Amino acid sequence: MKTPPFESGSLSVFRWFAALQLAVILPALASRLLDSRDGQEAMLRLLSVSLGTAILLLGYLLWRSLPAKLGKAYLPFGLVIATLGHSLGHFFMLLAPDWESAPLPLTAAWHLILLLFVPLVIVAVHYAYHAVTAYCLGTAMLDIALTLAAVGDLNTNLTPTFAMLAVRTFTFWVVGYSVVWLMNVQRKQRQELAEANQRLALYAATLDQLATQRERNRIARELHDILAHSLSGLAVHLEGIDSLWDVNPQKARSMLGQARAATESGLAETRRALQALRASPLEDLGLALAIADYAQSAAQRAGFQAELHLPEKLQPLPPAIEQDVYRVAQEAIENAARHAKAKTVSVKLIQTSGRLTLTIRDDGRGFDLSTPSTGYGLRGMRERAEMLGGELNITSAIGQGTTAELTYRENV
Length: 412
Description:
- The structure is a single chain.
- By secondary structure, the protein is an alpha+beta fold.
- Among the domains are: 10-156; 285-412, Histidine kinase-like ATPase, C-terminal domain (Heat Shock Protein 90).
- Helices cover 69% and strands 9% of the residues.
- The protein has helices spanning 10-33, 40-62, 66-70, 74-95, 107-126, 129-151, 159-244, 249-278, 281-285, 287-302, 319-338, 377-388, and strands at 305-309, 344-352, 355-362, 391-396, 402-409.
- The protein has a 5-stranded mixed β-sheet, with helices on one face.
- Strand 2 (344-352) and strand 3 (355-362) form a beta hairpin.
- Helix 1 (10-33) packs antiparallel against helix 2 (40-62) and helix 10 (287-302) runs parallel beside helix 11 (319-338).
- The two termini are 54 Å apart.
């Protein structure tokens, strides 16, 4: 049988409660043994039974293998020991012939209230409202029955004792219901927190899957723009070489040289793309310098002039935001280098309070925005903009160049 679950710390509190009883009862019992006044026999009986109960309860609670053996019955047995033992102590006190002459007659009643309070709280922590009601009424009826059985004489004035029982029962009921209500609120909050954590874990897993999918899409765009173009051009050259090899060998050799040059260019572009996939310039250079480095590299490769307007220092941004801004800049610069045939490309990055604006403008051939695009470039830029929660505006016209402006606003 598995060890039953306990509310956090309740079992430790129960053990400390039993140990504290021993620490309090032993000195009290020792002092009563040395006292010869009337009424000491009644108090000795009460303290002796209480001492035995505390020893039995502490031994029960310290027996490590019992929770696994008894299962759900473990805690109720401990509560029965704590409750019944102390009620029996009160009963044996009333059996003493000198109980009426015991000092402070109501001391025993107060003693019982203190000893039953911790079991009451444990009942309220682990069980529902009906268990608290049953505990309050059960202990009251048990004490009434034991008191009447011990005294026997109905003419004895037991009004103070019964009044104390009534006050104890009502107080216990109020305290128990309050504890149950607080525990229900706490359990509800813990359940809501667990559900929120589960939703958060699912959300994180979904984001991870989306990030993986978007990265796959980016790699697909890279492969399409580099390998597909290079290989399709190489295939055209090889077909021409095959058809001219016997008819015009000189022209075939010329096309072979062109095919070799195209292969070398495609290989260089593939290596560059693979290096971009492996390396993360943002970690080494930061956003502004990484964009500047990429623009200068593209300008050298494609033969355009890069005009850079980038701040020397940027306020820190989340790494995911920097990554998306960099990828948008990378895509826009590549579009200008490969498709626009631009002579000049301007890259501007401005950061103001809570706002980041990236503007990339070229003087290339432009394109008609009303014509549906089948390529991956613009689609990838829009996906990145949506990913970081920004706005992407693209303006272009045939022969008038293209401007891509990305705006990101921080949540404040």
